[in-house]
Design goal:
The protein has helices at 24-35, 51-54, 60-67, 73-79, 85-108, 134-144, 162-167, 204-222, 248-264, 281-299, and strands spanning 3-5, 43-44, 110-113, 151-155, 174-181, 194-198, 226-230, 269-272. By secondary structure, the chain is of the alpha/beta class. The chain has an 8-stranded parallel beta sheet, sandwiched between helices. Helix 8 packs parallel to helix 9 (248-264). The radius of gyration is 17 Å and the shape is globular. The structure holds zinc ion. Zinc ion binds at residues 157-159, 232, 234, 274-275.
Length: 300
């Protein structure tokens, strides 16, 4: 069964006019239920992850200051969301959502978290709408408890997974692959195990041909036991922050290729949603919904 992590806490209340389309977290499940791609039984509500597990990734100093609302103004500004206890609780729920998706992926082949993909969070600070790094937290948990021994992160959000790259820079058991806009945020990139920086305006054909050349070779080389896939839809031409030129069909083909490749290789894949900042909310929701439709179609 296709398992999907979702909780109402995902939709964090933001000040009027904030540029993050928070409502997508509510609209994605609604759309999937409405069209009949999934039913209520596909969803599960993650509990907040315990602090001990979060501390396998984040520094004590950062986590406790985040938890206790003690970050500096500058640190809060870098995150880009108002800091409240609710935001911290939300991060813990999302992190556990991604972890539980990894377990469900081992069972069913694939599972999706409606939020997550908070790849700009470092061990010791947050930025770019990310305060804790859900994939890093889940990956470190799995490694620490000897549940898996080799992990591949496929980060296809248009922004580089700088936090993830930094967290795992000295961790040979996690291979970080980020394909992103070369000129996009973050301006100062970290070094992933494999970075592919794309020129502005890259379109479907060029994008898909690079991905199709790269991913199978990586699987062969890394031999992971589990994949975390960050399926940001800010690669779309319509995206306000993206700078690339993918069509919705191209974005869907990207998801299809990643999921089919994982399935073919019998590799569990846990998906976190990542960013999407098109002007039209309908386009964002539709592009994210395609990832779930693909998962359902390919795996079940
Ligand atoms: Zn992004």
């Amino acid at each position: 069964m296709l398992k999907i992590a979702y909780d109402p806490i995902y939709k964090y209340k933001l000040p009027e006019g904030h540029r993050f389309p928070m409502i997508k977290y509510e609209l994605i499940p609604e759309q999937l239920l409405y069209e009949g791609t999934v039913s209520e039984k596909n969803f599960f509500s993650p509990t907040p992850l315990d602090e001990e597990s979060i501390l396998l990734t984040h520094t004590r100093d950062y986590w406790f200051r985040l938890r206790d609302q003690q970050l500096t103004e500058r640190e809060i500004r870098a995150i880009g969301f108002p800091l409240t206890p609710q935001l911290v609780q939300r991060s813990r729920v999302i992190a556990n959502g991604t972890l539980q998706c990894a377990f469900y992926a081992q069972q069913y082949g694939v599972a999706l978290n409606v939020a997550g993909g908070t790849h700009h969070a470092y061990a010791f600070r947050g930025e770019g709408f990310c305060c804790t790094n859900d994939i890093a937290v889940a990956a470190n948990y799995l490694l620490h408890h000897n549940i898996v021994h080799k992990i591949l992160v496929v980060d296809l959000d248009v922004h580089q997974g700088n936090g993830t790259a930094h967290i795992f820079r000295n961790e040979p058991r996690v291979f970080t692959f980020s394909m992103h806009g070369a000129k996009n945020f973050p301006l100062r990139k970290e070094v992933s195990d494999l970075d592919i920086g794309l020129p502005d305006g890259t379109e479907d054909q060029a994008y898909l041909s690079i991905l199709k050349k790269t991913l199978p070779v990586l699987l062969e080389k890394v031999q992971p036991e589990l994949v975390f896939y960050l399926s940001g839809v800010d690669v779309l031409a319509s995206d306000k922050l993206g700078r690339l030129g993918l069509t919705p069909e191209g974005c869907r083909e990207r998801d299809r290729f990643v999921l089919e490749t994982c399935k073919k290789n019998k590799l569990p894949v846990a998906i976190s949603m990542g960013g999407g900042y098109s002007e039209s909310l309908a386009i964002i929701v539709e592009a994210h919904a395609n990832t779930y439709r693909m998962a359902q179609e390919i795996f079940f």
